[in-house]
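Structure (tokenized):
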């Protein structure tokens, strides 16, 4: 039995997220598992580094699968990508240790969210358009409170007492390209709660347009009180890198 690690790029626009569903909805994992299973002539199961929500994209999603086959990486990639739809590409494959697990061995996950303040004709589907110029000084004033091993209960959709809300956040930043009217929100953490990236990004933008006051945000985040904010749409979100 062999264990293989793959790196995947996909446009999540037409998919119901990464994870295979019981109702046979169109998912990234489902398409990949079916295609790989056909090639190796046995049923395989993909373990992804994490689940992306419906409509979210990935530049470097990582997954692994086990098979009895000994694969030639060049031939396998060529054949697999020939079977996959145009919006899914497997960029790399390599044989790894048998106990490697794409999810449990990942130590950090990076996301990037793309925002535009101007109308775009090209690549518009990959940007969330806003109609205001956020105050980055206000946004940057609250970012430090989010860094470290913190509870994100106040920004989580599932607020059940049994849920684990703790995440170790390593980095958050907003960068602006004024000449293009673009903003890039980046966040890196050990793990993410459901819709957490879109909630954090939405809250920071709400702070940047004075819809949420910085001190109110800080107080509620510390106490775990629900922060009413705008969840950013999924189209601008990319899983950019997995660290091991």
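Design, position by position:
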């Amino acid at each position: 039995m062999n264990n293989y690690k793959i790196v995947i790029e996909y446009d999540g626009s037409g998919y119901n997220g990464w994870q295979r569903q019981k109702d046979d909805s169109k998912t990234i994992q489902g398409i990949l598992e079916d295609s790989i299973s056909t090639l190796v002539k046995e049923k395989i199961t993909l373990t992804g580094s994490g689940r992306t929500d419906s409509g979210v994209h990935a530049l470097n999603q990582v997954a692994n699968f086990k098979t009895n086959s000994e694969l030639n990486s060049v031939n396998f990639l060529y054949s697999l990508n020939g079977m996959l739809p145009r919006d899914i590409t497997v960029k790399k494959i390599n044989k790894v240790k048998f106990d490697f697990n794409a999810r449990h061995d990942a130590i950090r996950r990076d996301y990037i969210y793309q925002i535009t303040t101007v109308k775009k004709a090209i690549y518009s589907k990959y940007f969330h358009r806003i109609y205001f110029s956020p105050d980055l000084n206000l946004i940057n004033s609250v970012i430090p409170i989010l860094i470290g091993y913190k509870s994100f209960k106040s920004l989580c959709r599932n607020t059940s007492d049994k849920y684990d809300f703790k995440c170790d956040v390593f980095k958050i930043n907003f960068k602006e390209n004024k000449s293009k009217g673009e903003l890039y929100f980046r966040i890196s953490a050990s793990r993410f709660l459901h819709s957490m990236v879109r909630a954090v990004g939405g809250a920071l933008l709400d702070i940047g347009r004075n819809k949420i006051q910085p001190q109110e945000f800080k107080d509620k985040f510390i106490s775990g009180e629900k922060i009413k904010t705008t969840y950013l749409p999924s189209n601008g979100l990319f899983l950019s890198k997995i660290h091991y």
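Reviewer-requested clarification: The domain at 2-96 is CATH 3.30.70.580 (Alpha-Beta Plaits). The longest strand covers residues 166-177.
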